[in-house]
Protein backbone atom coordinates (compact mmCIF):
# COMPACT_ATOMS: atom_id res chain seq x y z
CA UNK A 1 0.00 0.00 0.00
CA UNK A 2 1.24 3.52 -0.83
CA UNK A 3 0.33 5.53 2.25
CA UNK A 4 0.83 9.23 2.83
CA UNK A 5 0.64 10.26 6.49
CA UNK A 6 0.18 13.95 7.25
CA UNK A 7 1.37 14.85 10.75
CA UNK A 8 3.49 11.68 10.71
CA UNK A 9 6.23 13.25 12.84
CA UNK A 10 3.78 13.89 15.68
CA UNK A 11 2.83 11.74 18.65
CA UNK A 12 0.08 9.57 17.12
CA UNK A 13 1.29 9.93 13.51
CA UNK A 14 4.75 8.54 14.30
CA UNK A 15 3.26 5.40 15.88
CA UNK A 16 1.13 4.98 12.75
CA UNK A 17 4.23 5.34 10.57
CA UNK A 18 6.18 2.77 12.65
CA UNK A 19 3.29 0.29 12.47
CA UNK A 20 2.80 0.64 8.73
CA UNK A 21 6.52 0.49 7.91
CA UNK A 22 6.67 -2.75 9.96
CA UNK A 23 3.73 -4.14 7.95
CA UNK A 24 5.60 -3.42 4.71
CA UNK A 25 3.55 -0.43 3.50
CA UNK A 26 5.29 2.21 1.41
CA UNK A 27 4.98 5.28 3.61
CA UNK A 28 5.80 8.97 3.17
CA UNK A 29 5.32 11.66 5.77
CA UNK A 30 4.22 15.27 5.35
CA UNK A 31 4.74 17.43 8.43
CA UNK A 32 5.76 21.04 9.07
CA UNK A 33 7.35 20.10 12.44
CA UNK A 34 5.31 22.73 14.28
CA UNK A 35 4.82 20.27 17.15
CA UNK A 36 6.20 17.07 15.60
CA UNK A 37 9.84 16.00 15.69
CA UNK A 38 12.01 14.52 13.00
CA UNK A 39 13.54 12.19 15.68
CA UNK A 40 10.13 10.49 16.00
CA UNK A 41 10.71 9.00 12.54
CA UNK A 42 13.05 6.28 11.35
CA UNK A 43 15.86 7.77 9.23
CA UNK A 44 14.73 5.84 6.14
CA UNK A 45 11.15 7.17 6.09
CA UNK A 46 10.76 9.64 3.20
CA UNK A 47 9.87 12.98 4.75
CA UNK A 48 8.52 16.20 3.24
CA UNK A 49 8.74 19.23 5.50
CA UNK A 50 5.62 20.85 4.08
CA UNK A 51 2.80 22.87 5.58
CA UNK A 52 -0.65 21.56 4.63
CA UNK A 53 -1.70 25.20 4.17
CA UNK A 54 0.65 25.39 1.16
CA UNK A 55 -1.55 24.03 -1.60
CA UNK A 56 1.14 24.02 -4.31
CA UNK A 57 3.58 22.08 -2.14
CA UNK A 58 0.90 19.59 -1.12
CA UNK A 59 0.02 19.04 -4.78
CA UNK A 60 3.73 18.57 -5.59
CA UNK A 61 4.05 15.82 -2.95
CA UNK A 62 0.95 14.03 -4.27
CA UNK A 63 2.19 14.35 -7.87
CA UNK A 64 5.56 12.80 -6.90
CA UNK A 65 4.35 10.04 -4.56
CA UNK A 66 0.86 9.21 -5.94
CA UNK A 67 -0.56 7.81 -2.68
CA UNK A 68 -3.37 5.25 -2.75
CA UNK A 69 -4.39 5.97 0.83
CA UNK A 70 -4.05 9.13 2.92
CA UNK A 71 -4.01 9.21 6.71
CA UNK A 72 -4.67 12.77 7.81
CA UNK A 73 -3.24 13.29 11.30
CA UNK A 74 -1.78 16.80 10.87
CA UNK A 75 -3.65 19.41 12.86
CA UNK A 76 -3.47 22.25 15.25
CA UNK A 77 -4.32 19.76 18.01
CA UNK A 78 -4.86 21.97 21.06
CA UNK A 79 -8.38 22.90 22.22
CA UNK A 80 -7.13 25.83 24.29
CA UNK A 81 -5.09 27.31 21.41
CA UNK A 82 -8.22 27.06 19.23
CA UNK A 83 -10.15 29.07 21.84
CA UNK A 84 -7.43 31.78 21.83
CA UNK A 85 -6.99 31.75 18.04
CA UNK A 86 -10.02 30.32 16.22
CA UNK A 87 -8.88 31.81 12.92
CA UNK A 88 -5.45 30.15 13.07
CA UNK A 89 -7.08 26.87 14.08
CA UNK A 90 -9.48 26.98 11.13
CA UNK A 91 -6.66 27.90 8.71
CA UNK A 92 -4.88 24.62 9.48
CA UNK A 93 -7.72 22.32 10.50
CA UNK A 94 -10.25 23.37 7.86
CA UNK A 95 -8.41 25.14 5.02
CA UNK A 96 -5.25 23.00 5.27
CA UNK A 97 -7.39 19.86 5.30
CA UNK A 98 -9.23 21.09 2.20
CA UNK A 99 -5.88 21.35 0.40
CA UNK A 100 -5.23 17.70 1.28
CA UNK A 101 -8.74 16.68 0.18
CA UNK A 102 -8.42 18.57 -3.11
CA UNK A 103 -5.11 16.80 -3.76
CA UNK A 104 -6.85 13.46 -3.05
CA UNK A 105 -9.49 14.35 -5.64
CA UNK A 106 -6.95 15.51 -8.23
CA UNK A 107 -4.67 12.48 -7.87
CA UNK A 108 -7.30 9.75 -7.49
CA UNK A 109 -6.67 8.70 -3.87
CA UNK A 110 -8.86 5.71 -2.99
CA UNK A 111 -9.30 6.00 0.75
CA UNK A 112 -8.94 8.74 3.38
CA UNK A 113 -8.53 8.22 7.12
CA UNK A 114 -9.28 11.23 9.29
CA UNK A 115 -8.13 11.84 12.88
CA UNK A 116 -11.22 13.36 14.44
CA UNK A 117 -12.01 13.90 18.09
CA UNK A 118 -14.39 11.89 20.23
CA UNK A 119 -13.16 13.77 23.29
CA UNK A 120 -14.45 17.14 22.03
CA UNK A 121 -17.02 16.62 19.29
CA UNK A 122 -19.93 15.41 21.46
CA UNK A 123 -19.65 18.14 24.08
CA UNK A 124 -20.46 17.32 27.71
CA UNK A 125 -21.32 13.63 28.22
CA UNK A 126 -23.95 13.26 31.00
CA UNK A 127 -23.06 11.24 34.12
CA UNK A 128 -23.49 7.46 33.66
CA UNK A 129 -23.64 7.61 29.89
CA UNK A 130 -21.20 7.09 27.03
CA UNK A 131 -21.27 9.01 23.77
CA UNK A 132 -21.91 6.74 20.79
CA UNK A 133 -21.25 7.55 17.15
CA UNK A 134 -24.95 8.28 16.58
CA UNK A 135 -25.01 11.10 19.10
CA UNK A 136 -25.73 14.59 17.79
CA UNK A 137 -22.49 16.53 17.50
CA UNK A 138 -22.25 19.32 20.05
CA UNK A 139 -18.86 21.02 19.61
CA UNK A 140 -17.94 23.44 22.39
CA UNK A 141 -14.64 24.75 21.00
CA UNK A 142 -13.36 26.07 17.66
CA UNK A 143 -11.17 22.94 17.47
CA UNK A 144 -14.22 20.66 17.68
CA UNK A 145 -16.14 22.82 15.19
CA UNK A 146 -13.27 22.43 12.70
CA UNK A 147 -13.13 18.64 13.18
CA UNK A 148 -16.94 18.41 12.77
CA UNK A 149 -16.76 20.53 9.65
CA UNK A 150 -14.14 18.22 8.06
CA UNK A 151 -16.39 15.25 8.85
CA UNK A 152 -19.12 17.00 6.80
CA UNK A 153 -16.70 17.73 3.96
CA UNK A 154 -15.81 14.03 3.87
CA UNK A 155 -19.47 13.11 3.31
CA UNK A 156 -19.55 15.63 0.45
CA UNK A 157 -16.31 14.30 -1.11
CA UNK A 158 -17.61 10.75 -0.94
CA UNK A 159 -20.94 11.76 -2.46
CA UNK A 160 -19.52 14.01 -5.18
CA UNK A 161 -16.21 12.28 -6.02
CA UNK A 162 -16.45 8.75 -4.57
CA UNK A 163 -13.63 9.25 -2.00
CA UNK A 164 -14.17 6.55 0.62
CA UNK A 165 -13.26 7.41 4.20
CA UNK A 166 -12.89 6.31 7.79
CA UNK A 167 -13.38 8.85 10.54
CA UNK A 168 -11.63 7.83 13.76
CA UNK A 169 -12.92 9.83 16.72
CA UNK A 170 -10.13 9.45 19.23
CA UNK A 171 -10.75 9.72 22.96
CA UNK A 172 -7.82 10.98 25.11
CA UNK A 173 -4.81 9.24 23.58
CA UNK A 174 -1.69 8.70 25.73
CA UNK A 175 1.60 6.85 25.41
CA UNK A 176 5.30 7.20 24.54
CA UNK A 177 6.37 10.32 22.58
CA UNK A 178 3.44 12.48 23.68
CA UNK A 179 4.63 16.06 24.19
CA UNK A 180 4.78 16.85 27.93
CA UNK A 181 5.25 20.56 27.28
CA UNK A 182 2.00 21.18 25.39
CA UNK A 183 -1.24 22.38 26.96
CA UNK A 184 -2.95 19.00 26.64
CA UNK A 185 -1.82 15.45 27.28
CA UNK A 186 -2.16 15.17 31.06
CA UNK A 187 -0.55 11.70 31.12
CA UNK A 188 2.63 13.03 29.48
CA UNK A 189 2.66 16.14 31.68
CA UNK A 190 2.24 14.10 34.89
CA UNK A 191 4.83 11.48 33.86
CA UNK A 192 7.46 14.07 33.02
CA UNK A 193 6.90 16.24 36.10
CA UNK A 194 6.60 13.37 38.57
CA UNK A 195 9.78 11.73 37.29
CA UNK A 196 11.62 15.05 37.58
CA UNK A 197 10.31 15.53 41.13
CA UNK A 198 8.23 18.61 40.20
CA UNK A 199 4.84 19.71 41.51
CA UNK A 200 1.75 18.85 39.44
CA UNK A 201 -1.55 20.70 39.05
CA UNK A 202 -4.95 19.03 39.29
CA UNK A 203 -7.66 21.21 37.75
CA UNK A 204 -11.03 20.79 39.44
CA UNK A 205 -14.08 19.40 37.78
CA UNK A 206 -16.39 21.75 39.77
CA UNK A 207 -14.68 22.92 42.94
CA UNK A 208 -11.05 23.14 43.99
CA UNK A 209 -9.75 19.87 45.49
CA UNK A 210 -12.37 17.56 43.93
CA UNK A 211 -11.51 14.44 41.88
CA UNK A 212 -10.99 16.42 38.67
CA UNK A 213 -12.50 15.83 35.24
CA UNK A 214 -13.35 12.38 33.96
CA UNK A 215 -11.75 11.20 30.73
CA UNK A 216 -11.53 8.07 28.61
CA UNK A 217 -7.79 7.34 28.22
CA UNK A 218 -6.83 5.13 25.27
CA UNK A 219 -3.33 3.77 24.68
CA UNK A 220 -1.61 4.92 21.46
CA UNK A 221 -0.74 1.31 20.49
CA UNK A 222 -4.47 0.50 20.42
CA UNK A 223 -5.14 3.59 18.31
CA UNK A 224 -2.49 2.40 15.87
CA UNK A 225 -4.14 -1.06 15.65
CA UNK A 226 -7.54 0.48 14.91
CA UNK A 227 -5.90 2.75 12.36
CA UNK A 228 -4.28 -0.23 10.58
CA UNK A 229 -7.77 -1.63 9.94
CA UNK A 230 -8.98 1.76 8.76
CA UNK A 231 -6.24 2.27 6.16
CA UNK A 232 -7.05 -1.19 4.75
CA UNK A 233 -10.70 -0.22 4.29
CA UNK A 234 -11.83 -2.73 6.95
CA UNK A 235 -13.47 0.05 8.93
CA UNK A 236 -15.66 2.33 6.83
CA UNK A 237 -17.59 5.28 8.23
CA UNK A 238 -17.33 6.70 11.74
CA UNK A 239 -15.77 4.98 14.77
CA UNK A 240 -15.03 6.05 18.32
CA UNK A 241 -11.56 4.89 19.36
CA UNK A 242 -11.76 4.59 23.13
CA UNK A 243 -11.88 2.20 26.05
CA UNK A 244 -15.36 3.16 27.22
CA UNK A 245 -14.02 3.64 30.78
CA UNK A 246 -13.80 6.89 32.72
CA UNK A 247 -10.90 7.89 34.98
CA UNK A 248 -10.67 11.00 37.15
CA UNK A 249 -7.57 13.19 37.08
CA UNK A 250 -6.79 12.30 40.70
CA UNK A 251 -7.02 8.56 40.04
CA UNK A 252 -4.68 9.03 37.08
CA UNK A 253 -2.25 10.94 39.27
CA UNK A 254 -2.27 8.19 41.93
CA UNK A 255 -1.64 5.53 39.30
CA UNK A 256 1.26 7.37 37.65
CA UNK A 257 2.84 8.26 40.95
CA UNK A 258 2.60 4.68 42.29
CA UNK A 259 4.10 3.23 39.09
CA UNK A 260 6.85 5.88 39.03
CA UNK A 261 7.46 5.30 42.76
CA UNK A 262 7.45 9.05 43.48
CA UNK A 263 4.95 11.20 45.34
CA UNK A 264 4.72 14.71 43.87
CA UNK A 265 3.55 17.92 45.50
CA UNK A 266 0.05 18.67 44.22
CA UNK A 267 -1.49 22.04 43.52
CA UNK A 268 -5.30 22.00 43.36
CA UNK A 269 -6.60 24.60 40.91
CA UNK A 270 -10.08 25.77 39.86
CA UNK A 271 -11.74 24.34 36.72
CA UNK A 272 -10.15 25.44 33.47
CA UNK A 273 -12.52 27.46 31.27
CA UNK A 274 -13.68 25.37 28.31
CA UNK A 275 -12.82 21.98 29.88
CA UNK A 276 -15.62 19.41 29.65
CA UNK A 277 -16.45 17.81 33.02
CA UNK A 278 -16.99 14.31 31.67
CA UNK A 279 -16.12 12.64 28.38
CA UNK A 280 -16.50 8.88 27.98
CA UNK A 281 -17.08 7.27 24.59
CA UNK A 282 -18.99 4.12 23.76
CA UNK A 283 -16.55 1.76 22.00
CA UNK A 284 -18.96 -1.09 21.16
CA UNK A 285 -18.89 -0.40 17.41
CA UNK A 286 -15.11 -0.65 17.02
CA UNK A 287 -14.72 -3.42 19.63
CA UNK A 288 -16.14 -5.98 17.23
CA UNK A 289 -13.07 -5.38 15.01
CA UNK A 290 -10.28 -4.78 17.55
CA UNK A 291 -9.39 -7.50 20.07
CA UNK A 292 -9.15 -6.05 23.53
CA UNK A 293 -7.91 -2.73 24.80
CA UNK A 294 -4.79 -2.11 26.84
CA UNK A 295 -5.65 -1.77 30.55
CA UNK A 296 -4.88 1.73 31.84
CA UNK A 297 -2.36 0.37 34.35
CA UNK A 298 -0.41 -1.50 31.63
CA UNK A 299 -0.44 1.47 29.25
CA UNK A 300 0.68 3.84 32.01
CA UNK A 301 3.49 1.46 32.97
CA UNK A 302 4.81 1.44 29.37
CA UNK A 303 4.49 5.23 29.22
CA UNK A 304 6.29 5.82 32.54
CA UNK A 305 9.09 3.47 31.41
CA UNK A 306 9.46 5.36 28.14
CA UNK A 307 9.57 8.77 29.88
CA UNK A 308 12.06 7.51 32.41
CA UNK A 309 14.35 6.22 29.62
CA UNK A 310 14.00 9.42 27.60
CA UNK A 311 14.75 11.64 30.63
CA UNK A 312 17.90 9.56 31.14
P1 LIG B 1 0.72 16.22 17.52
O1 LIG B 1 0.72 17.70 17.71
O2 LIG B 1 1.80 15.41 18.14
O3 LIG B 1 0.65 15.84 15.97
C1 LIG B 1 0.21 16.74 14.98
C2 LIG B 1 1.27 16.75 13.88
O4 LIG B 1 0.79 17.60 12.83
C3 LIG B 1 2.60 17.33 14.36
O5 LIG B 1 3.66 16.49 13.94
C4 LIG B 1 2.67 18.69 13.70
O6 LIG B 1 4.00 19.11 13.45
C5 LIG B 1 1.86 18.46 12.44
N1 LIG B 1 1.25 19.68 11.90
C6 LIG B 1 0.56 20.63 12.58
N2 LIG B 1 0.19 21.61 11.75
C7 LIG B 1 0.65 21.27 10.52
C8 LIG B 1 0.59 21.91 9.26
N3 LIG B 1 0.01 23.11 9.11
N4 LIG B 1 1.18 21.30 8.19
C9 LIG B 1 1.80 20.11 8.34
N5 LIG B 1 1.90 19.47 9.53
C10 LIG B 1 1.32 20.05 10.60
O7 LIG B 1 -0.72 15.73 18.03
P2 LIG B 1 -1.33 14.27 18.17
O8 LIG B 1 -1.82 14.17 19.56
O9 LIG B 1 -0.41 13.25 17.64
O10 LIG B 1 -2.60 14.40 17.22
C11 LIG B 1 -2.69 13.76 15.94
C12 LIG B 1 -4.11 13.97 15.41
O11 LIG B 1 -5.04 13.34 16.30
C13 LIG B 1 -4.54 15.42 15.32
O12 LIG B 1 -5.34 15.56 14.16
C14 LIG B 1 -5.38 15.62 16.55
O13 LIG B 1 -6.33 16.67 16.38
C15 LIG B 1 -6.03 14.27 16.67
N6 LIG B 1 -6.49 13.93 18.02
C16 LIG B 1 -5.58 13.73 19.03
C17 LIG B 1 -6.04 13.35 20.29
C18 LIG B 1 -5.09 13.08 21.45
O14 LIG B 1 -5.56 12.71 22.53
N7 LIG B 1 -3.78 13.21 21.29
C19 LIG B 1 -7.42 13.21 20.53
C20 LIG B 1 -8.31 13.45 19.49
C21 LIG B 1 -7.83 13.78 18.23
Automatic annotation (TrEMBL):
InterPro entries: Epimerase_deHydtase, NAD(P)-bd_dom_sf. Residues 4-233 form the NAD-dependent epimerase/dehydratase domain. Belongs to the NAD(P)-dependent epimerase/dehydratase family. This is UDP-glucose 4-epimerase.
Amino acid sequence: MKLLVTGGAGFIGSHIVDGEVARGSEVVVVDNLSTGKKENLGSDVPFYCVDICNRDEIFRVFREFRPEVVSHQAAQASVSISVKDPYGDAMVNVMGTLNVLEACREFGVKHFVFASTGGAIYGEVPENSKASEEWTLNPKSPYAVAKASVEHYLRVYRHNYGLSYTILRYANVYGPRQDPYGEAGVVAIFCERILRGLEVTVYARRSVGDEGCIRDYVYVGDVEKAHSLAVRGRLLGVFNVSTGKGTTTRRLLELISSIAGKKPGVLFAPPRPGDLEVSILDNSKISSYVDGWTELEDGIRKTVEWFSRSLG
